[in-house]
Amino acid sequence: MTSAQVDQHRDGNEAVRAEGSEGGEGYQRGLGARQIQMIAIGGAIGTGLFLGAGKGISKAGPSLILAYAIAGLVIFLIMRALGELLMYRPVSGSFSEYAREFLGPFWGYATGWTYWLFWVVTGITEVTAAAKYMTYWTHGSFPQWAYALIFTVLLYTVNLISVKLFGELEFWFSMVKVTAIVGMILICAGILTIGFSDAADTASVANLWNHGGFFPNGIGETLMTLQMVMFAFLAVELVGVTAGESKDPEKTLPKAINTVPWRIAVFYVGALIMIMSVIPWSNFKAGESPFVLAFEKMGLGVGAAIVNFVVLTAALSSCNSGMYSTGRMLRDLALNNQGPKIFTKLTRSGTPLVGTSFSAALMLVGVWINYQWPGKAFDYVVSFATISGMWAWIVILLCQIRYRARSDRGELPRSGFRAPGGRFASWGALAFIGMVIVMMGIDKDARVSLYCAPLWALVLGISYLVLKRRNPEAAAFRKR
């Protein structure tokens, strides 16, 4: 590509962005800077931390902190790779659209449908967790599946009204989570320094190494928790899906992405250090929220109820994000002739009516799961959500590698938000994800997701061949 062509490409992108400010592709740019910031912050704080961390602590002990720190560094590399692509071309569809451009139409097809499936499965996971948290107050007097049904219908309604309402709800969901974690860290710090509450007598930073050492069950068990750790970070990439509906994405998106390191340092590493300093790790069990249990051990019963409300909020926040992203992903597929055209329909407020409705209907499967297996529903879907969600990260990294190579050759304009480490960092992140997948294959509980992945790949391959034969345009890439 000549320099003149590059300038023309850049001018074309600016025209698209200008159009997008008035509602590109029918969407309305209703997400402001504060909402994007909170979506980015809240995306990394979900049931993987509040509920799943209990299992991780019971398996790895204090070394879980190190697992979160290392995985968090990899997540930052992934997000910076996504940021480089977003500043090159901030479009709806995000990494699915980049997959079509840099890897080929089939990759865009596979990424779009896999990410859609990821959020449907995650929605089931989160509504399951939300229903489980409600039993803290009702003690089984109201069926768990009924809570799942109520939450699904409520969030579906919110997402159909407007993207601005979605953003506002997500802002306050995230605000509750952030305030609660910061407050819990401060309370733990007070117990360690001033010495109040029932846990003061045993509270000490030495609890991180006094009960069997920092690696009480060996390094192997720490490695085995990596798939749970990565599950906790799923949804951080959601900020990329908001690109088509963000006000001034060139400023808001980089700022949101650059908050990833301190988010992980405070909300994961910091919170777990404080909790396991106040309460020895051996007190925590799988299936129990470490945050709720910590307050109960401190003798702060009201605090436990508050934290339970917060983790309920976290679950609803993630489900809310799932409702949002599934409709957008289905519409992106339809606009590229890789999904039913009916999914292109928008409401007057610019929300994808049919795509969101179809996804919400499938999420109601979660209600049935809660009815059939109320005690095991969360574990059934976590593993498959992890492998399907990591596919998006793999695609982001591969696209960034291809894009950086082409931009370095002058074939494409350079992004104004280049990822540190370039292609080498992305290859390193890919290697880490590969190691996590190997660990999932070793873990008998997580292995089920690896059995499902080849079946899903076969479905995608066959359906794409049929689609391409019926509609050759499905195999063509049209830059939007």
From TrEMBL:
Ranges where the record places region Disordered: 1-26
Subcellular location: Cell membrane
A Pfam family hit: AA_permease
Domain (Amino acid permease/ SLC12A) ranges: 36-471
TM ranges: 36-53, 65-86, 106-125, 145-166, 178-197, 217-239, 260-279, 299-319, 350-369, 381-403, 424-442, 448-467
Family matches, as PROSITE patterns: AMINO_ACID_PERMEASE_1
Biased composition (Basic and acidic residues): 7-20
Family: Belongs to the amino acid-polyamine-organocation (APC) superfamily. Amino acid transporter (AAT) (TC 2.A.3.1) family.
PANTHER family: GABA PERMEASE, L-ASPARAGINE PERMEASE
UniProt-recorded name of the protein: Amino acid permease
Native source species: Streptomyces rameus
